[in-house]
């Protein structure tokens, strides 16, 4: 009985080891670090894992010895040992030493990751992004570039990007596992931190990282995903100027899209902006900015980016994101109208 | 030993509050409770300090606009004095002088009532100035901390009064002596908290 | 579990001794009360005289409050008497926990 | 006495339990209620695992999932684990120190009924418009945003049961301080008593911050206050601090008594005294102390700044040291011992590697900058189930098997016990080991579903299968309880044969006055010492005399009932319904009225006379 269970356990762990060698998806997994912050954290994770495996080994060796050697064989009463000072000193000091080995890099990296001093310098060249979290969607403002986008963060690689994060309703948490640990977006005041996106490893991950909300924030907390497009500085600059060029809402081209734009201007524009300028304060931006909606890779952060899914979303957002803030705010649209709006929205692109 | 046995001055023990197992338990248990209350009040103090002067708009009064020395001083004197009077009561309790004990407890209750009265007056005054429980985080924190203390005072008064009425005919015995003692401990603790309230809330509030 | 404190065998002597003891203690308590009132007056005065900076006044009045509370605890609540080991331990532990919380709330709740 | 109880009718037995102030019966009440809530919480866990077994599942809706999740955490921590442990404290600690009851039997009953009514109140939310859905941590911004009365149920229910726990804690402390048998010095107390002592102290200091936090939340939600409303100057981080100042010590409130149980089991079944007794005591106290200085490790990502994060990180790691001392002392208790693998020993033995894994991942979490990755992911879920289930639940199972004969006079079936163990053990590791990796692969916790294609499918399925195994184990365990109660084979004082502490020196179940004569304690493991000298029982420390016992009372039930009623009034008060305020006032009047009755009506208890005790002696032998 006991043997059997042991074997089962061993084979189970062997199987797990196989699964683990996968390390998860490169665009999502913290075990596939793709930037300086994630690297630092990964190193610390590895260091602590080694220490812990060491500790576990020591305990398990004693444990197994106890198991095989000291089972009851006769009715003798063993010697009643009170304790041992030497042993006690050993198992007090060694853990202290191990913890010191862990504590030093922990403290060092904690300070390193919290260093946002370039943000506060006047006329800083550093790229700053103001992240505003809303119930189930993300707003990204580039104050230096004077543009706003939503749901998909666009960043240059191989440089530090600084973030200024705040929530507009309830607490959320901003997390891009492959690029670095999370930080909460509080309702009270802004948090700051930085991330760095490594060019080569971004490429390997398909230049599209998955981001998640990591703080319970209501029914659709599970669906509050966002995406990160990491690109070289040149491409990023090109994107910025393409965005900045959109001064007026883009004109629809096809007939259907023209009709869609009309409907949009009636029903939707009250909440959704289609120009990127950050003229409004963050509190007034109540819905995702759709300027470059056609360039996105997901609808509402979770659905595949195609016209069908877009139509589904507009038709009934509630089925896809329970409790979202769009449901019921724009009257009833007929299927034709929805089709037209979808045509319009799919055409909103700033890049070729 | 039977707790309700009639005692005389001669048989009355030196520490009537700890002379039976029940009494000892009550004594230790109540002190532990005060340890917990310390944390309770500390949490309220901490909250108050974090929310002091946090108001939604500038039209609302801040600590330095609200508090006034004379009223706080009056309240403080009333409560501090009630502390020494309850010490007197316990002094007479230990000397098996029931009447005197009751007298001093009575004085304590009166002083406590005076304190409560001044607090009620103060609160209504603030409400008129726009400093309400619901008007700001500052208001919520202020009334919670000071009001919670006031609630303790009120509870303490009821407690002492109940004890006095219940035992007015019976005189002292080893069953009720610990009760009186514990109630007086409670009263002192309320005083201790007040010392911090007048310092941290009122005086520091006026300093700015 | 019976009354056995301070017994010399002779009840009369005991009683007198006890009487004197508690009278003496009462005297101490009156003195400490006077001191407490005095400390309170000083604290109020420090605030009433607008001359000092807050950097001086605040720590000063907190110190006064702390001293006063020591009087309360040790004289009025008899915490220095024997038989108060557990109360002392637990009161100070509570104070420790409470002060940690206050420290945290006045430093790392930062806005 | 026990024979008299058996002859009573069903109604009389119920009344007996409703009015009891006997710590052993209160313990049984705690077991019944805590066990019931464990099943409820377990069922909720099973729902969680069913929902997460496959991606995009719609077994439950998003909103319902959050309710289940919240209630699972809240129920398990406050209404299952803690009450079950308090049950052990009630059942065993007074016996271990040689006391006839706890210091305040009446208050003990009040504590139970408050916990019970608080728990019932919380769970009634399921039927009255929806359960709380803001997580067991109920962070303020979400809690204030939450519609309906769910969070109000959380706030009021926990407040009521929290008061019960608090007075329970004070009661145990006083019992241990004042009521130890002659010769039972602090350093001769069994470790379970020590951990009860320290855990009770933690309760005493940890619950007030929770009380305050809940009060502020109640004021905000029900009475228009603005503690957490940012637009009115409020601050949500205050809640986080208050909650965790309570919340971290809480996890040690859970684990320390479990450590105590294991510290009884290893010596008994190794036939060896506890290795390093004084360092075990020291480590227990140190863990309790450090437990109050680390709470912010739950808030590393809140943005407290690097200084605070670094300080709390290092302080947190420090707790690994005293815990390590304990682990090694247990191992060396068994070293050169004569180990018998009974069911309690199975659980205790398996606890060591299991808890160890949870402990070391705890230290990994303590590394603040790395915790930015782990925080709020399944890695944390794995960590705390390893320590809570692998530590606390294993401890509870171990304790139940160990002390069942003492409490009920009959043994649980060993074979069924071992089957339970294997199912639970395997299921447990299946469920939670893989969750470490889910977290690292990027799966946040508290998600009602996950999308396909992110690599989470297989692992979640494995995890859900494991939960199935655990369910089977729990059902077998229930079966065991039923079967053995039906058989009811009576056992003697020391059914395991190797009992060391005082509880094994008296009959199983003990008479309602526990000790006819208080025993004289001559050292650590008092009963063992006597046995080794060839004696049958303890040497009495006093001549046979009258025993003073407290009267039963229905007042404790009424006190708690009053608050239960008042809570409804307070909650519906915001809906502006006309009956709310009167109901609240009536409830409070009931509570304070019964308190008043209690304080003016003298209750001196009764005496069992010497003669009766002598008679019983004849009857028993
Ligand atoms: C019984 C409950 C219990 C116990 C005992 C512990 C024990 C520990 N916990 Fe855990 N913890 C929880 C219950 C518990 N925890 C819960 C419920 C949560 C989540 C709450 C929520 O968010 O919902 C949590 C979350 C949690 C976090 C926050 C994670 C996050 O949300 O980001 C952290 C971070 O530091 C942490 C750390 C620790 C540490 C360091 C210990 C230590 O006490 C462990 C010490 C033990 C050992 C280390 C093993 C034995 C030691 C040796 C063999 C010696 C040698 C060892 C070394 C040198 C390392 N825990
Ligand atoms: C004491 C504490 C405790 C215990 C024992 C458990 C036990 C279990 N827990 Fe839980 N858990 C928590 C405390 C606990 N948990 C906390 C605090 C949270 C965080 C909540 C939050 O985020 O707010 C959490 C969260 C949590 C999650 C994460 C959910 C999420 O983040 O979305 C999961 C997921 O797998 C989970 C699973 C389980 C499982 C499978 C068990 C199993 O061990 C359960 C085993 C028990 C059974 C299987 C019982 C079976 C019962 C029956 C079969 C009924 C039979 C009925 C009758 C006969 C009437 N728990
Ligand atoms: Cu936003 Cu979770
Ligand atoms: Cu913790």
From TrEMBL, chain A:
It is an enzyme of class 7 (translocase). The chain crosses the membrane at residues 48-68, 89-108. Residues 22-117 form the Cytochrome oxidase subunit II transmembrane region profile domain. Residues 124-242 form the Cytochrome oxidase subunit II copper A binding domain. Signal peptide: none annotated. Gene3D superfamilies: 1.10.287.90, Cupredoxins - blue copper proteins (2.60.40.420). This is Cytochrome c oxidase subunit 2. It comes from Neobacillus bataviensis.
TrEMBL record, chain B:
Coiled coil: none annotated. GO terms for biological process: aerobic electron transport chain. It is found in: Cell membrane. It holds the Pfam family COX3. GO terms for cellular component: plasma membrane. The chain crosses the membrane at residues 28-51, 71-91, 103-121, 141-165, 185-205. Residues 1-206 form the Heme-copper oxidase subunit III family profile domain. GO terms for molecular function: cytochrome-c oxidase activity. It is a multi-pass membrane protein. InterPro entries: Cyt_c/ubiquinol_Oxase_su3, Cyt_c_oxidase-like_su3, Cyt_c_oxidase_su3-like_sf, Cyt_c_oxidase_su3_a-hlx, Ubiquinol_oxase_su3_dom. Keywords: Cell membrane, Membrane, Transmembrane, Transmembrane helix. Its main location: membrane. Belongs to the cytochrome c oxidase subunit 3 family. PANTHER family: CYTOCHROME C OXIDASE SUBUNIT 3 (PTHR11403:SF9), CYTOCHROME C OXIDASE SUBUNIT III (PTHR11403). This is Cytochrome c oxidase subunit 3. The lineage of its organism: Bacteria, Bacillati, Bacillota, Bacilli, Bacillales.
From TrEMBL, chain C:
Coiled coil: none annotated. It comes from the Bacteria. Its main location: membrane. The chain crosses the membrane at residues 28-48, 54-77, 89-110. Pfam families: COX4_pro. It is found in: Cell membrane. One of its GO terms (cellular component) is plasma membrane. It is a multi-pass membrane protein. Keywords: Cell membrane, Membrane, Transmembrane, Transmembrane helix. NCBIfam families: CoxD_Bacillus (TIGR02908). This is Cytochrome c oxidase subunit 4. The lineage of its organism: Bacteria, Bacillati, Bacillota, Bacilli, Bacillales.
TrEMBL record, chain D:
GO terms for cellular component: plasma membrane. Residues 9-522 form the Cytochrome oxidase subunit I profile domain. It comes from the Bacteria. Pfam families: COX1. The keyword Nucleus does not apply. Belongs to the heme-copper respiratory oxidase family. Cytochrome c oxidase is the component of the respiratory chain that catalyzes the reduction of oxygen to water. Subunits 1-3 form the functional core of the enzyme complex. CO I is the catalytic subunit of the enzyme. Electrons originating in cytochrome c are transferred via the copper A center of subunit 2 and heme A of subunit 1 to the bimetallic center formed by heme A3 and copper B. This is Cytochrome c oxidase subunit 1. It comes from Neobacillus bataviensis.
């Amino acid at each position: 009985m006991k043997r059997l269970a042991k074997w089962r356990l061993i084979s189970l762990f062997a199987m797990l080891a196989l699964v683990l060698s996968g390390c998860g998806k490169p665009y999502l997994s913290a075990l596939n670090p793709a930037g300086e912050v994630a690297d630092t954290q990964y190193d610390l994770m590895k260091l602590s894992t080694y220490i812990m495996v060491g500790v576990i080994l020591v305990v398990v060796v004693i444990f197994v010895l106890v198991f095989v050697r000291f089972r009851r064989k006769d009715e003798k009463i063993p010697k009643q040992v009170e304790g041992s000072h030497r042993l006690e000193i050993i198992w007090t000091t060694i853990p202290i030493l191990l913890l010191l080995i862990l504590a030093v890099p922990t403290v060092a990296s904690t300070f390193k990751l919290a260093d946002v001093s370039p943000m506060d310098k006047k006329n800083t060249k550093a790229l700053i992004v103001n992240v505003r979290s809303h119930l189930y969607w993300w707003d990204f403002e580039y104050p230096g570039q004077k543009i706003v986008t939503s749901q998909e963060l666009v960043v240059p690689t191989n440089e530090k990007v600084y973030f200024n994060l705040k929530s507009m309703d309830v607490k959320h948490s901003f997390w891009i596992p492959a690029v670095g640990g999370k930080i909460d977006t509080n309702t009270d005041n802004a948090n700051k931190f930085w991330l760095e996106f490594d060019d080569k490893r971004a490429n390997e991950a398909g230049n599209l990282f998955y981001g998640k909300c990591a703080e319970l924030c209501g029914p659709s907390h599970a669906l509050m995903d966002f995406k990160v497009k990491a690109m070289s500085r040149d491409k990023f600059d090109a994107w910025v100027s393409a965005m900045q060029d959109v001064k007026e809402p883009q004109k629809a081209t096809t007939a259907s899209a023209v009709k869609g734009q009309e409907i949009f201007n009636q029903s939707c524009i009250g909440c959704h902006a289609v120009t990127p300028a950050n003229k409004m304060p963050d509190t007034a931006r109540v819905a995702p900015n759709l300027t470059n909606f056609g360039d996105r890779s997901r609808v509402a952060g979770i659905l595949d980016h195609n016209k069908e899914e877009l139509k589904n979303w507009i038709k009934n957002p509630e089925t896809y994101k329970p409790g979202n803030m769009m449901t019921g705010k724009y009257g009833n649209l007929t299927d034709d109208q929805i089709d037209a709006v979808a045509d319009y929205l799919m055409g909103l692109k700033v890049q070729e | 030993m039977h707790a309700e046995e009639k005692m005389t001055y001669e048989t009355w023990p030196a520490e009537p509050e700890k002379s039976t197992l029940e009494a000892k338990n009550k004594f230790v248990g109540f002190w532990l409770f005060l340890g917990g209350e310390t944390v309770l009040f500390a949490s309220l103090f901490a909250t108050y300090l974090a929310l002091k002067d946090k108001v939604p708009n500038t039209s609302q009064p801040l600590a330095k606009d609200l508090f006034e020395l004379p009223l706080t001083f009056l309240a403080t004197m009333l409560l501090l004095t009630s502390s020494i009077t309850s010490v007197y009561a316990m002094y007479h309790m230990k000397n098996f002088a029931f009447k005197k004990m009751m007298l001093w407890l009575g004085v304590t209750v009166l002083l406590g009532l005076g304190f409560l009265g001044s607090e009620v007056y103060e609160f209504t005054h603030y409400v008129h100035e726009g400093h309400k429980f619901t008007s700001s985080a500052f208001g919520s924190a202020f009334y919670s901390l000071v009001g919670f203390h006031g609630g303790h005072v009120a509870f303490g008064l009821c407690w002492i009064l109940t004890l006095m009425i219940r035992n007015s005919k019976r005189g002292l015995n080893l069953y009720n002596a610990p009760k009186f003692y514990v109630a007086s401990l409670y009263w002192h603790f309320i005083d201790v908290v007040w010392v911090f309230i007048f310092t941290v809330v009122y005086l520091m509030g006026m300093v700015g | 579990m019976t009354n056995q404190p301070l017994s010399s065998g002779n009840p009369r002597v005991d009683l007198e001794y006890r009487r004197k003891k508690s009278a003496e203690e009462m005297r101490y308590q009156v003195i400490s009360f006077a001191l407490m009132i005095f400390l309170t007056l000083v604290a109020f005065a420090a605030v009433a005289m607008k001359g000092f900076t807050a950097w001086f006044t605040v720590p000063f009045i907190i110190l006064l409050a702390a001293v006063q509370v020591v009087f309360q605890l040790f004289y009025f609540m008899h915490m220095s008497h024997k038989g108060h080991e557990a109360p002392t331990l637990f009161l100070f532990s509570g104070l420790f926990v409470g002060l940690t919380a206050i420290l945290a709330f006045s430093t790392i709740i930062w806005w | 006495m026990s024979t008299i109880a058996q002859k009573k009718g069903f109604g009389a037995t119920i009344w007996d339990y409703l009015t009891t102030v006997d710590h052993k019966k209160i313990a049984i009440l705690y077991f019944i209620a805590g066990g019931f809530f464990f099943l409820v919480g377990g069922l909720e866990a099973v729902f969680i695992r069913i929902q997460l077994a496959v991606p995009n599942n719609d077994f439950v809706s998003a909103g319902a999932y959050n309710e289940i999740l919240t209630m699972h955490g809240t129920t398990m921590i406050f209404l299952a684990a803690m009450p079950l442990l308090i049950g052990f404290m009630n059942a065993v600690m007074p016996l271990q120190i040689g006391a006839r009851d706890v210091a305040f039997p009446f208050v003990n009953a009040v504590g139970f009924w408050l916990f019970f009514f608080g728990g019932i109140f919380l769970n009634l939310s399921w039927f009255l418009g929806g359960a709380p859905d803001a997580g067991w941590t109920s962070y303020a911004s979400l809690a204030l945003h939450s519609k309906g009365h769910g969070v109000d149920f959380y706030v009021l229910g926990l407040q009521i049961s929290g008061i019960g726990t608090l007075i329970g804690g004070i009661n145990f402390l006083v019992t241990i301080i004042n009521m130890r048998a002659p010769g039972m010095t602090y350093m001769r107390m069994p470790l379970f008593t020590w951990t009860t002592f320290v855990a009770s102290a933690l309760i005493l200091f940890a619950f007030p911050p929770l009380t305050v936090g809940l009060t502020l939340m109640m004021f905000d939600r029900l009475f228009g206050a603005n503690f957490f409303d940012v637009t009115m100057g409020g601050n949500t981080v205050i809640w986080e601090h208050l909650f965790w100042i309570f919340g971290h010590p809480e996890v040690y409130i859970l684990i320390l008594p479990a450590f105590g149980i294991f510290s009884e089991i290893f010596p008994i079944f190794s036939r060896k005294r506890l290795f390093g007794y004084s360092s075990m005591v020291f480590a227990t106290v140190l863990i309790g102390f450090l437990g109050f200085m680390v709470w912010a490790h739950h808030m590393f990502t809140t943005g407290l700044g690097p200084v605070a994060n670094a300080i709390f990180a290092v302080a947190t790691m420090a707790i690994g040291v005293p815990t390590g001392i304990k682990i090694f002392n247990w191992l060396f208790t068994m070293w050169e011992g004569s180990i018998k693998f009974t069911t309690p020993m199975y659980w205790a033995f398996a606890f060591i590697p299991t808890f160890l894994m949870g402990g070391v991942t705890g230290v990994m979490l303590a590394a603040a900058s790395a915790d930015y990755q782990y925080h709020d992911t399944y890695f944390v879920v794995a960590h705390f189930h390893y320590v809570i289930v692998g530590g606390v639940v294993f401890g509870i199972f171990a304790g139940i098997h160990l002390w069942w004969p003492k409490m009920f006079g009959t043994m649980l079936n060993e074979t069924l016990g071992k089957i339970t163990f294997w199912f639970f053990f395997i299921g447990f590791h299946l469920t939670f080991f893989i969750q470490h990796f889910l977290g690292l692969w990027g799966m946040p916790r508290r998600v009602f579903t996950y999308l396909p294609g992110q690599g989470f499918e297989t692992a979640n399925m494995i995890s859900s299968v494991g939960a199935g195994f655990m369910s089977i184990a729990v059902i077998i365990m229930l079966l065991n309880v039923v079967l053995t109660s039906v058989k009811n084979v009576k056992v003697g004082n020391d059914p395991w044969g190797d009992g060391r502490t005082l509880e094994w020196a008296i009959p199983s179940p003990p008479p309602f006055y526990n000790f006819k004569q208080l025993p004289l304690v001559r050292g650590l493991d008092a009963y063992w010492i006597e046995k080794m000298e060839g004696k049958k029982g303890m040497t009495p420390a006093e001549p046979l005399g009258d025993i003073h016992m407290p009267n039963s009372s229905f007042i404790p039930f009424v006190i708690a009932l009053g608050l239960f009623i008042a809570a409804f009034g307070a909650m519906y008060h915001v809906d502006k319904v006309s009956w709310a305020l009167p109901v609240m006032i009536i409830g409070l009047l009931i509570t304070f009225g019964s308190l008043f009755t209690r304080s003016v009506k003298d209750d001196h208890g009764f005496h069992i006379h010497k003669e009766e005790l002598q008679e019983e002696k004849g009857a028993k032998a």
